[in-house]
Write a structure and sequence with these properties.
binds fe (ii) ion
């Protein structure tokens, strides 16, 4: 459960946010081939994050835990870097994050 939180839902999800600006810079520099490669990587990464999200939610459910608040608790317990907005909302929603969770991550208490 912790691994699903910290690897796909934190580290790989950061890749979802980071890819579009890098892609834009490559395209602006005229490197369309590399920009298209990042499109493929982003598409694949949504799948990776989505699998991690599904397992995280399942493992939380088996433990009687609410997934979204548990995720935020685990980030704190493990001293993980907090996800930084702006998020790639479309990609994160496609990977299983909810709008409410993204709002809670963008505006922590
Ligand atoms: Fe990945």
């Amino acid at each position: 459960m912790v691994r699903m939180a910290l690897v796909p839902r934190l580290l790989e999800a950061r890749g979802l946010d980071a890819t579009p600006p890098i892609r834009a810079r490559l395209a602006q520099a005229g490197d369309e081939a590399s920009a298209r490669l990042l499109d493929i990587i982003l598409h694949d990464e949504i799948g990776h994050v989505g699998l991690g999200d599904a397992w995280f939610r399942r493992l939380c459910g088996e433990r009687g835990l609410e997934a979204e608040p548990t995720y935020r608790e685990l980030l704190t317990i493990y001293g993980a870097p907090w996800p930084q907005a702006p998020f790639n909302e479309a990609a994160r929603l496609a990977a299983g994050f909810s709008t409410a969770e993204l709002a809670a991550l963008a505006h922590p208490d």
